[in-house]
Amino acid sequence: MLRSAIHDASVVTVEFDTGTQARFHAIWLRDNALDPDTRAPGNGQRLITIGDIPADVSVSTADVINGDLSVTFQPEGKTATFPADWLADHVYDCDRAQDTGRIAPGITTWERGIGAPSGDWTEVHAKPAAKRDWLAAVAEFGFAKLTGGPTEPESLLKVADLFGYVRETNYGPYFEVRTEVNPTNLAYTGLGLQAHTDNPYRDPVPTLQILYCLENSAEGGDSIVVDGFRAAEKLRDQNPEGFALLTGYPARFEYKGSDGVWLRSRRPMIELSPDGELVGIRFNNRSSAPFVDVPFDQMEAYYAAYRQLGEIIDDPAMGVSFKLEPGESFIVDNTRVLHARLGYSGAGSRWLQGCYADKDGLLSTLAAMEMAQPEAAE
Pfam families in the record, alphabetically (predicted)? Predict the structure, then answer.
C-alpha cells in the first residue's frame, strides 16, 4: 500500500506503508504503464515503441487511490494506475551492489563436501514439487544428479524434456561418450580430462549439458564437478590484479576437429556483466587458441593469473566427485560449473550419452512453477 505521492513535471515520489520512499521518472512510468493500450492483455508485451511516447512527456497529477498510484501524463492526457506491490517490486531509486565479481542473488557457490543435489527420476517426472526442487537445485548450485532412470539409449532426451529443448550442434542432437578409434574429440577416449566447460569455442556456448550413463563397469571414470564461480571468487580474493586481467581481456577458443567445422570465439575466461556481476566462465585447455588480445606488457601477468585459476580449479578440495551408475545422469550449468573425468581402464565398458540444452528454458519452467507454487506442491 502507498501512503502518499508527490510530484513535479518529471518525477513522482511515493511513500510506501513501510515508511520507505522511492522516486520514479515520468518517462519510466509512461513506458511501463500497465493499461491495455500500452501492454497486451494476456502476455504483457509492450504495444508501443519509445518513439510513441512524447519527448516532452510530463506528469500533471499523481494521486494515491485505494493504496495504488494513479498518474496522468501530458500532453496525452492519459491516466494510468500502478499497483503499490508492482511499484515496490520495480524500485530503481536505491543503492545497488557494485562489487566487481559479485555473485547474483539466488546462487550458492560451493566446494567439496556439499554433497551432490539430486532428484529421483520417477518422482521428478510424476510430482511437480519434486521437479521444482530439482530445477531449483540446478539454478542455485549449477548442477544436480538424477537417479533411478531407464537404461535405454536416448533416455537423456527425456531429461531435457522436463524443462525445454535439446540444442543441436555439429555433434548432433546428442553424442556418445565412449572410447573410439581415431576420435574427433578427446572426450571419446579413456584419458582423464581436466575440469572444463564445454564448447567455449561457440558464441553463445550451450548453457546446459546433460550426461547420462548407460553402462559403467570400467575401473575409474569418476565424474567430478567444480564450481567455476567459487574458483573465480578465490582468484578475485587472492589476486585482484590477475582477476582483472582475466575479466578485462578476451581469450580465444577454437575447434576444427571434423570436416566442415571451424568454430571460434573471443570471450573472457571470466565474464562479468557491465555492472560487475559474475555471469560466466570459459575454461578449456583443449580448446584454447593463442591469446592475441592481451597487450605485450600484460601477457606474462595474464598467464600467471591463468595458471593460478587452473591451480584453484585443479585443487582436490574444490571438486565434488561421483561415479554414475547405469540410469543415472547429471546436468551442469555450462556457463558456471566445470566437469572433469578421471581416466578409466580398457577393461569393462563405459558408455555415456550427452546433449546440450538452454538454461533459459530451465529458468522459465522453474519461474512458472514457482508462480504456481500451490499447484506445484500437490
Answer: GBBH-like_N, TauD
